[in-house]
Amino acid sequence: MAVDLNALFGGALIGIAASLMLLFNGRVTGISGIVSGLLSFRKGEIAWRFAFLAGLLGGGLALWYFHPAVFAGNLSTELWSVCLAGILVGFGTVLGGGCTSGHGVCGISRLSIRSIVATVVFIVFGVMAVFLSRTLGILP
Question: pTM score, two decimals?
């Protein structure tokens, strides 16, 4: 079995980052919660949230600059469909009380039943969407 060291390294970095956020800031590393907190303009909450999101974007931009082949691909889906999917994911994070990073990475590691159930629901509906899209042609 071949091991993808990039995926292994990336997963370890995600786990370390989530652990450090909880250890030093007492916060769960859920992206939707960090973004919504940034938009609420609460005093004392803006600087670290902005720095976190700037780091996410900066890391992606640095990767794009130094290793653009990672982003090469052919998106066979219409742009309107991708935008609609993004909007639906945004609503889903509100309905689910968090996103996959908050529930899947941080919640499961804390043995949160709510997060385990939410992550299972995310996966089930993701599988259903792929099935409907590829097999039945229902979704674009």
Answer: 0.68
